[in-house]
Amino acid sequence: MSKPDYYDLLGVSRQADAAEIKKAYRKMAMQFHPDRNRDNPDAEEKLKELNEAAAVLLDEEKRSVYDRYGHEGLNNRGFGGGFDVGDLFKDFFDGIFGGGGGRGRAARGRDMVYETSISFEEAARGVEKSMEVPYEIPCNTCEGSGAKAGTKPSLCRTCGGGGEIRVQQGFFVLSRTCPDCRGAGKVIKEPCSDCKGAGRKEAKETVELQIPAGAYEGLRIRMRGRGEKVADGRGQSGDLYVTIHVEEHPLFQREEDDVICEVPVSFAQAALGAKLDIPTLEGIISMKIPAGTQPGTLFRLKGKGFTKIQEYGKGDQIIRVVVEIPTQLSTEQKDLLERFEALSSNEQHTPARSGFIEKLKSFFHWDG
Questions:
Q1: Where does the pLDDT of residue 301 fall: very low under 50, low under 70, confident under 90, or very high at 90 and above?
Q2: Rounded to a whole number, what is the distance in angstroms from the first to the last CA of the chain?
Q3: How would CATH label the architecture of 6-97?
Q4: How far apart are CA 314 and CA 296, in angstroms?
Q5: pTM score, two decimals?
Q6: Element housing 320 (H / E)
Q7: How do residues 230-258 score in pLDDT, each as one tens digit?
Q8: Which are the contacts of 139, defined by CB distance < 8 A and separation ≥ 6?
Q9: CB-based contacts of 362: which residues, under 8 Å, 6+ apart?
Q10: Residue-wise pLDDT tens digits, 126-167
Q11: Residue 56, Cβ neighbours under 10 Å: how many?
Protein backbone atom coordinates (compact mmCIF):
# COMPACT_ATOMS: atom_id res chain seq x y z
CA MET A 1 0.00 0.00 0.00
CA SER A 2 1.42 3.39 -1.02
CA LYS A 3 2.35 5.86 1.67
CA PRO A 4 0.45 9.17 1.95
CA ASP A 5 2.12 12.36 0.83
CA TYR A 6 3.86 13.92 3.85
CA TYR A 7 2.74 17.45 2.99
CA ASP A 8 -0.89 16.36 2.57
CA LEU A 9 -0.68 14.36 5.78
CA LEU A 10 0.31 17.44 7.79
CA GLY A 11 -1.92 19.77 5.79
CA VAL A 12 0.87 22.15 4.71
CA SER A 13 2.07 23.43 1.36
CA ARG A 14 5.35 22.36 -0.22
CA GLN A 15 6.68 25.85 0.48
CA ALA A 16 5.96 25.64 4.23
CA ASP A 17 8.85 26.58 6.53
CA ALA A 18 9.88 24.72 9.68
CA ALA A 19 7.68 26.84 11.95
CA GLU A 20 4.59 26.07 9.87
CA ILE A 21 5.41 22.36 9.83
CA LYS A 22 5.91 22.27 13.60
CA LYS A 23 2.61 24.09 14.17
CA ALA A 24 0.73 21.73 11.85
CA TYR A 25 2.34 18.70 13.47
CA ARG A 26 1.43 19.82 16.98
CA LYS A 27 -2.19 20.32 15.97
CA MET A 28 -2.51 16.94 14.23
CA ALA A 29 -0.53 15.02 16.83
CA MET A 30 -2.68 16.35 19.64
CA GLN A 31 -5.79 15.29 17.71
CA PHE A 32 -4.59 11.71 17.18
CA HIS A 33 -2.62 11.10 20.38
CA PRO A 34 -3.70 7.70 21.81
CA ASP A 35 -4.55 9.24 25.20
CA ARG A 36 -7.33 11.17 23.46
CA ASN A 37 -8.41 8.25 21.31
CA ARG A 38 -8.64 5.29 23.66
CA ASP A 39 -11.52 3.82 21.63
CA ASN A 40 -9.84 4.36 18.26
CA PRO A 41 -7.34 1.58 17.46
CA ASP A 42 -6.17 3.45 14.34
CA ALA A 43 -5.04 6.56 16.23
CA GLU A 44 -1.64 5.13 17.17
CA GLU A 45 -0.87 4.22 13.57
CA LYS A 46 -1.97 7.68 12.44
CA LEU A 47 0.34 9.29 14.98
CA LYS A 48 3.24 7.18 13.70
CA GLU A 49 2.59 8.48 10.18
CA LEU A 50 2.50 12.07 11.46
CA ASN A 51 5.78 11.62 13.32
CA GLU A 52 7.39 10.08 10.25
CA ALA A 53 6.22 13.00 8.09
CA ALA A 54 7.51 15.58 10.58
CA ALA A 55 10.84 13.80 10.96
CA VAL A 56 11.43 13.99 7.22
CA LEU A 57 10.16 17.50 6.55
CA LEU A 58 12.06 19.01 9.50
CA ASP A 59 15.35 17.52 8.34
CA GLU A 60 16.82 19.58 5.47
CA GLU A 61 18.67 16.66 3.86
CA LYS A 62 15.75 14.23 4.07
CA ARG A 63 13.29 16.85 2.87
CA SER A 64 15.45 17.68 -0.13
CA VAL A 65 15.62 14.01 -1.13
CA TYR A 66 11.88 13.55 -0.56
CA ASP A 67 11.00 16.61 -2.64
CA ARG A 68 13.04 15.28 -5.59
CA TYR A 69 12.46 11.54 -5.42
CA GLY A 70 9.58 10.90 -3.03
CA HIS A 71 9.35 7.93 -0.64
CA GLU A 72 11.45 5.70 -2.90
CA GLY A 73 14.29 8.20 -2.83
CA LEU A 74 14.37 8.11 0.98
CA ASN A 75 14.57 4.32 1.02
CA ASN A 76 17.34 4.26 -1.59
CA ARG A 77 19.38 6.78 0.41
CA GLY A 78 19.13 4.70 3.58
CA PHE A 79 16.57 6.94 5.26
CA GLY A 80 13.74 4.40 5.12
CA GLY A 81 12.40 3.06 8.41
CA GLY A 82 13.34 4.17 11.91
CA PHE A 83 12.37 7.80 11.48
CA ASP A 84 12.92 9.54 14.78
CA VAL A 85 11.62 12.92 15.85
CA GLY A 86 13.58 12.47 19.07
CA ASP A 87 12.78 14.88 21.87
CA LEU A 88 11.55 17.64 19.58
CA PHE A 89 7.96 17.51 20.85
CA LYS A 90 8.38 15.53 24.07
CA ASP A 91 7.80 18.57 26.29
CA PHE A 92 4.74 19.42 24.23
CA PHE A 93 3.17 16.02 24.89
CA ASP A 94 4.24 15.98 28.52
CA GLY A 95 2.50 19.29 29.14
CA ILE A 96 -0.76 18.14 27.61
CA PHE A 97 -0.91 14.48 28.58
CA GLY A 98 0.58 14.54 32.05
CA GLY A 99 4.20 13.70 31.41
CA GLY A 100 7.16 14.12 33.72
CA GLY A 101 7.99 10.71 35.09
CA GLY A 102 5.28 9.82 37.58
CA ARG A 103 3.72 13.23 38.22
CA GLY A 104 0.38 11.94 36.97
CA ARG A 105 -2.66 14.05 36.25
CA ALA A 106 -4.50 16.26 38.67
CA ALA A 107 -7.43 14.35 40.15
CA ARG A 108 -10.87 15.62 39.16
CA GLY A 109 -14.30 14.29 39.97
CA ARG A 110 -16.58 13.16 37.20
CA ASP A 111 -19.18 15.46 35.67
CA MET A 112 -22.78 14.55 36.47
CA VAL A 113 -25.97 14.91 34.43
CA TYR A 114 -29.36 15.52 36.01
CA GLU A 115 -32.84 16.31 34.64
CA THR A 116 -35.66 18.40 36.04
CA SER A 117 -39.10 19.51 34.83
CA ILE A 118 -40.69 22.93 35.11
CA SER A 119 -44.08 24.30 34.15
CA PHE A 120 -44.71 26.43 31.07
CA GLU A 121 -45.19 29.50 33.25
CA GLU A 122 -41.97 28.83 35.19
CA ALA A 123 -40.10 28.63 31.90
CA ALA A 124 -41.53 32.00 30.94
CA ARG A 125 -40.75 33.90 34.13
CA GLY A 126 -37.78 31.91 35.48
CA VAL A 127 -37.67 30.00 38.73
CA GLU A 128 -35.32 28.76 41.44
CA LYS A 129 -35.58 25.00 41.93
CA SER A 130 -34.39 23.00 44.91
CA MET A 131 -33.23 19.58 43.74
CA GLU A 132 -32.03 16.56 45.65
CA VAL A 133 -29.14 15.24 43.62
CA PRO A 134 -27.60 11.82 44.38
CA TYR A 135 -23.86 12.04 44.90
CA GLU A 136 -20.92 9.93 45.84
CA ILE A 137 -19.09 11.73 48.63
CA PRO A 138 -15.84 10.92 50.44
CA CYS A 139 -16.38 8.28 53.12
CA ASN A 140 -16.31 9.95 56.55
CA THR A 141 -15.08 6.76 58.22
CA CYS A 142 -11.80 6.62 56.33
CA GLU A 143 -11.85 10.30 55.26
CA GLY A 144 -11.85 9.23 51.64
CA SER A 145 -8.69 7.15 51.78
CA GLY A 146 -10.49 3.82 51.37
CA ALA A 147 -8.20 2.27 53.99
CA LYS A 148 -9.18 0.71 57.29
CA ALA A 149 -9.03 2.97 60.34
CA GLY A 150 -5.48 3.11 61.68
CA THR A 151 -3.98 2.20 58.32
CA LYS A 152 -3.29 4.11 55.17
CA PRO A 153 -2.83 3.28 51.50
CA SER A 154 0.68 2.53 50.29
CA LEU A 155 2.32 4.01 47.25
CA CYS A 156 1.81 1.91 44.13
CA ARG A 157 5.17 0.39 43.20
CA THR A 158 4.19 -0.17 39.58
CA CYS A 159 3.55 3.47 38.68
CA GLY A 160 5.39 5.15 41.55
CA GLY A 161 2.22 6.94 42.63
CA GLY A 162 1.59 8.64 39.30
CA GLY A 163 -1.41 6.50 38.40
CA GLU A 164 -0.03 5.94 34.91
CA ILE A 165 2.50 3.81 33.16
CA ARG A 166 4.46 5.67 30.50
CA VAL A 167 6.00 3.68 27.68
CA GLN A 168 8.59 5.18 25.33
CA GLN A 169 8.05 3.91 21.81
CA GLY A 170 10.72 5.42 19.62
CA PHE A 171 9.77 9.01 19.04
CA PHE A 172 6.73 9.37 21.27
CA VAL A 173 5.52 8.49 24.74
CA LEU A 174 2.32 6.58 25.45
CA SER A 175 0.49 6.84 28.75
CA ARG A 176 -1.69 4.09 30.12
CA THR A 177 -3.66 3.82 33.35
CA CYS A 178 -1.75 1.72 35.85
CA PRO A 179 -3.36 -1.76 35.98
CA ASP A 180 -2.41 -2.34 39.63
CA CYS A 181 -3.84 0.80 41.23
CA ARG A 182 -6.28 1.67 38.41
CA GLY A 183 -5.01 5.21 38.24
CA ALA A 184 -5.21 5.97 41.96
CA GLY A 185 -1.46 5.88 42.52
CA LYS A 186 -2.10 4.05 45.80
CA VAL A 187 -2.74 0.46 46.81
CA ILE A 188 -5.09 -0.38 49.70
CA LYS A 189 -4.11 -3.56 51.54
CA GLU A 190 -6.76 -3.31 54.29
CA PRO A 191 -9.92 -1.67 52.92
CA CYS A 192 -12.34 0.38 54.99
CA SER A 193 -15.27 -1.78 56.16
CA ASP A 194 -17.74 1.07 55.60
CA CYS A 195 -17.00 1.91 51.95
CA LYS A 196 -15.27 -1.37 51.03
CA GLY A 197 -12.16 0.50 49.94
CA ALA A 198 -13.93 2.78 47.46
CA GLY A 199 -13.30 5.89 49.54
CA ARG A 200 -16.82 7.11 48.62
CA LYS A 201 -20.36 6.62 49.86
CA GLU A 202 -23.73 7.40 48.36
CA ALA A 203 -25.47 10.53 49.61
CA LYS A 204 -27.90 13.20 48.51
CA GLU A 205 -27.33 16.91 48.42
CA THR A 206 -29.82 19.74 47.96
CA VAL A 207 -28.85 22.00 45.08
CA GLU A 208 -30.43 25.39 44.40
CA LEU A 209 -30.70 25.88 40.64
CA GLN A 210 -31.54 29.26 39.15
CA ILE A 211 -33.44 28.68 35.89
CA PRO A 212 -33.56 31.85 33.77
CA ALA A 213 -36.67 33.42 32.30
CA GLY A 214 -37.13 32.16 28.76
CA ALA A 215 -35.86 28.64 29.52
CA TYR A 216 -36.72 26.18 26.76
CA GLU A 217 -37.04 22.43 26.35
CA GLY A 218 -33.61 20.78 26.40
CA LEU A 219 -31.81 23.81 27.89
CA ARG A 220 -28.66 22.59 29.66
CA ILE A 221 -27.39 24.53 32.66
CA ARG A 222 -23.87 23.98 33.97
CA MET A 223 -23.14 24.23 37.70
CA ARG A 224 -19.40 24.35 38.20
CA GLY A 225 -17.97 22.24 40.99
CA ARG A 226 -21.31 20.63 41.89
CA GLY A 227 -20.51 17.26 40.33
CA GLU A 228 -18.76 14.27 41.85
CA LYS A 229 -16.22 14.94 44.59
CA VAL A 230 -12.74 13.42 44.54
CA ALA A 231 -12.42 10.56 47.03
CA ASP A 232 -9.52 11.99 49.01
CA GLY A 233 -10.96 15.50 48.93
CA ARG A 234 -7.77 16.96 47.44
CA GLY A 235 -8.78 17.26 43.80
CA GLN A 236 -11.26 19.39 41.94
CA SER A 237 -14.94 18.44 41.93
CA GLY A 238 -16.63 17.77 38.61
CA ASP A 239 -19.46 19.85 37.19
CA LEU A 240 -23.21 19.23 37.31
CA TYR A 241 -25.17 19.56 34.08
CA VAL A 242 -28.93 19.97 34.47
CA THR A 243 -31.21 19.41 31.46
CA ILE A 244 -34.51 21.30 31.58
CA HIS A 245 -37.81 19.78 30.45
CA VAL A 246 -40.80 22.11 29.99
CA GLU A 247 -44.27 20.69 30.61
CA GLU A 248 -47.01 21.23 28.04
CA HIS A 249 -49.68 23.89 28.63
CA PRO A 250 -53.42 23.40 27.99
CA LEU A 251 -53.78 26.80 26.27
CA PHE A 252 -50.37 27.84 24.95
CA GLN A 253 -47.79 26.53 22.55
CA ARG A 254 -44.31 27.92 22.02
CA GLU A 255 -42.62 28.74 18.72
CA GLU A 256 -39.11 30.04 19.42
CA ASP A 257 -39.79 33.02 21.74
CA ASP A 258 -43.42 33.55 20.66
CA VAL A 259 -46.47 32.14 22.45
CA ILE A 260 -49.26 30.79 20.27
CA CYS A 261 -52.84 30.70 21.54
CA GLU A 262 -55.83 29.52 19.50
CA VAL A 263 -59.05 31.32 20.46
CA PRO A 264 -62.38 29.90 19.28
CA VAL A 265 -65.11 32.43 18.32
CA SER A 266 -68.62 31.94 17.09
CA PHE A 267 -69.71 32.65 13.55
CA ALA A 268 -71.65 35.68 14.74
CA GLN A 269 -68.67 37.07 16.71
CA ALA A 270 -66.40 36.73 13.68
CA ALA A 271 -68.96 38.38 11.40
CA LEU A 272 -70.06 41.18 13.72
CA GLY A 273 -66.85 41.73 15.65
CA ALA A 274 -66.53 41.13 19.36
CA LYS A 275 -64.65 41.87 22.55
CA LEU A 276 -62.82 38.76 23.76
CA ASP A 277 -61.11 37.72 26.98
CA ILE A 278 -57.65 36.55 25.97
CA PRO A 279 -55.33 34.51 28.25
CA THR A 280 -51.69 35.59 28.35
CA LEU A 281 -48.69 34.61 30.45
CA GLU A 282 -49.39 37.72 32.54
CA GLY A 283 -53.13 37.10 33.02
CA ILE A 284 -56.41 37.79 31.21
CA ILE A 285 -56.67 40.82 28.93
CA SER A 286 -59.50 42.16 26.74
CA MET A 287 -59.04 42.36 22.98
CA LYS A 288 -61.38 43.47 20.22
CA ILE A 289 -61.62 41.64 16.93
CA PRO A 290 -63.10 43.57 14.00
CA ALA A 291 -66.23 42.65 12.10
CA GLY A 292 -65.57 40.24 9.27
CA THR A 293 -62.66 38.47 10.98
CA GLN A 294 -61.79 35.39 8.94
CA PRO A 295 -60.87 31.93 10.26
CA GLY A 296 -57.12 31.65 10.86
CA THR A 297 -56.63 35.41 11.23
CA LEU A 298 -53.60 36.17 13.40
CA PHE A 299 -53.40 38.97 15.94
CA ARG A 300 -50.07 39.86 17.53
CA LEU A 301 -49.63 41.09 21.09
CA LYS A 302 -46.19 42.69 21.25
CA GLY A 303 -43.90 41.71 24.11
CA LYS A 304 -46.28 39.13 25.59
CA GLY A 305 -44.08 36.14 24.77
CA PHE A 306 -40.94 34.60 26.29
CA THR A 307 -37.88 36.50 27.43
CA LYS A 308 -35.10 36.07 24.89
CA ILE A 309 -32.20 34.30 26.57
CA GLN A 310 -28.88 36.10 25.98
CA GLU A 311 -30.73 38.78 24.03
CA TYR A 312 -32.78 41.84 24.79
CA GLY A 313 -36.56 41.97 24.79
CA LYS A 314 -39.34 39.43 24.58
CA GLY A 315 -41.17 37.51 21.94
CA ASP A 316 -44.83 38.16 21.11
CA GLN A 317 -48.08 36.36 21.76
CA ILE A 318 -49.92 35.39 18.62
CA ILE A 319 -53.68 34.90 18.73
CA ARG A 320 -54.99 32.56 16.06
CA VAL A 321 -58.75 32.93 15.51
CA VAL A 322 -60.68 29.69 15.07
CA VAL A 323 -64.25 30.20 13.86
CA GLU A 324 -66.41 27.49 15.36
CA ILE A 325 -69.26 26.15 13.23
CA PRO A 326 -72.32 25.02 15.23
CA THR A 327 -72.76 21.25 15.20
CA GLN A 328 -76.43 21.16 16.29
CA LEU A 329 -79.04 23.71 15.21
CA SER A 330 -82.62 24.21 16.26
CA THR A 331 -85.35 24.66 13.64
CA GLU A 332 -85.43 28.39 14.31
CA GLN A 333 -81.63 28.68 13.92
CA LYS A 334 -81.76 26.80 10.62
CA ASP A 335 -84.50 29.10 9.32
CA LEU A 336 -82.49 32.18 10.31
CA LEU A 337 -79.33 30.87 8.63
CA GLU A 338 -81.24 30.02 5.45
CA ARG A 339 -82.63 33.54 5.37
CA PHE A 340 -79.13 34.90 6.00
CA GLU A 341 -77.74 32.80 3.13
CA ALA A 342 -80.45 34.07 0.78
CA LEU A 343 -79.51 37.63 1.69
CA SER A 344 -75.77 37.00 1.25
CA SER A 345 -75.64 36.64 -2.54
CA ASN A 346 -73.89 39.98 -2.89
CA GLU A 347 -70.17 39.47 -3.57
CA GLN A 348 -69.38 42.26 -1.11
CA HIS A 349 -70.58 39.99 1.68
CA THR A 350 -68.49 36.98 0.66
CA PRO A 351 -65.67 38.23 -1.62
CA ALA A 352 -63.56 35.06 -1.31
CA ARG A 353 -66.41 32.75 -2.27
CA SER A 354 -67.54 35.03 -5.09
CA GLY A 355 -64.02 35.21 -6.47
CA PHE A 356 -63.70 31.42 -6.30
CA ILE A 357 -66.94 30.93 -8.27
CA GLU A 358 -65.79 33.36 -10.95
CA LYS A 359 -62.52 31.45 -11.39
CA LEU A 360 -64.48 28.19 -11.54
CA LYS A 361 -66.70 29.52 -14.31
CA SER A 362 -63.73 30.84 -16.27
CA PHE A 363 -61.62 27.71 -16.04
CA PHE A 364 -64.33 25.12 -16.73
CA HIS A 365 -66.53 27.35 -18.92
CA TRP A 366 -69.21 26.63 -16.38
CA ASP A 367 -72.44 28.64 -16.14
CA GLY A 368 -73.06 27.75 -12.50
A1: very high
A2: 79
A3: Orthogonal Bundle (1.10)
A4: 24
A5: 0.52
A6: strand 317-324
A7: 655 566 778 888 899 999 999 999 999 99
A8: 146, 192, 194, 195, 198, 199, 200, 201, 231
A9: none
A10: 999 888 888 777 787 787 778 887 788 888 888 877 778 777
A11: 21
CA 45 to chain CA centroid, nearest Å: 31
| Amino acid of residue 285 | I
Question: Has domain 263-364 been given CATH number 2.60.260.20?
Answer: yes
Beta strands in 151-270 (DSSP E): 154-155, 164-169, 172-177, 186-187, 200-211, 220-223, 240-246, 252-255, 258-266
Distances in whole angstroms, Cα of residue 196 to Cα of each of 143, 148, 188, 348? 13, 9, 10, 87
Q: Judge whether 47 and 97 are in contact, CB under 8 Å.
A: no
**Most confidently modeled range among 79-83, 159-163, 249-253, 327-331:** 249-253
Residue 191 near residue 139, CB atoms below 8 Å:
no
Most distant CA atoms of the chain, gap in Å:
108
Amino acid at 350: T
Q: Are 57 and 45 in contact (CB under 8 A)?
A: no
Q: Where are the domains of the chain?
A: 6-97, 263-364
Residue (of 270, 269, 252, 273) closest to 261 by Cα position:
252
- Closest residue by Cα to residue 50 from 24, 70, 75: 24
Degrees, nearest 5: CA angle 47-49-53: 115
Integer Cα distance of 316 and 175 in angstroms: 56
C-alpha span between 204 and 134 (Å, rounded): 4
Buried b (16+ CB within 10 A) or exposed e, 72-97: ebbeeeebeeebebeeebeeebbeeb
Residue range 75-102: average pLDDT?
A: 47
Residues 246 and 215: beta-carbon distance below 8 Å:
yes
Burial of 271 (0-12, 13-18, 19+ CB in 10 A): middle
